Amino acid sequence: MSGLVKSIALTMAAAAAIILAAAPARAATVKEIFEKYHLIGTFAQDCTKPPHQDNPQNWWYVNRLLDDKHVQRDFMTGPSTRFAVIMIDSATELKPNEIRVTGMRDGEITVDNVWHIEPNRTRTWEGIGDTKGKIADGKYVKTGNDIPWVYRCGSQ
Question: Is 154:42 a contact under the CB 8 Å cutoff?
Fold first, then answer.
């Protein structure tokens, strides 16, 4: 191969590598994010106690996959009593074990939060939408108390 042909081939290969590296990766779907972090199922602070309307610290959160782009998150205050529902329509991985979820609560309130995730548990780390100014760095802004972890219940 002549020097000119070799030089052109190397230049074309380098250009192709740059184009491929610059091409945006396909964003993961809500389903893919929730499955990756095992977030489909029931979560509570204490799975041994039933949800109770007078104790918001032990509401149960039931995450159900509706389709590739939507998860329904029910806030349960009793075995069959739902306090609120969030339709999550976006989930983005910010870094390993940290995601941002957005959606609408009860069709009226924008929800936009960052969750920290560990095996079999999760907690809200940052409030951006409906909790903006209420949650920061995993703490309630008003009191400075830690946001509690919610744990996966059962073997779902």
Answer: yes
| Backbone phi and psi for residue 105, each to the nearest 5 degrees, phi listed first | -95, 125
Which one, of 24, 39, 100, lies nearest residue 72 by Cα? 39
| Beta-carbon contacts of residue 42 (< 8 Å; ≥ 6 apart) | 60, 61, 62, 63, 152, 153, 154, 156
Q: Which domains does the chain have, with CATH numbers?
A: 30-152 (2.40.128)
Would you say 116 and 2 are in contact if contact means Cβ atoms under 8 Å apart?
Answer: no
Tell me the C-alpha distance between 44 and 76, whole Å.
10
Q: Which residue has the tokens 């959606």?
A: 103
Q: Report the Cα 153 to chain-centroid distance in Å.
A: 18
The pLDDT tens digits for 81-137 are: 899 999 999 999 999 999 999 999 999 989 999 999 999 999 999 988 667 778 999
Asked if 156 contacts 40 with a C-beta cutoff of 8 angstroms, the reply is: yes
What does the DSSP 8-state code read for residue 50? Answer: -
Q: Which stretch of DSSP H or E encloses residue 17?
A: helix 3-22
Token representation of residue 144: 């400075």
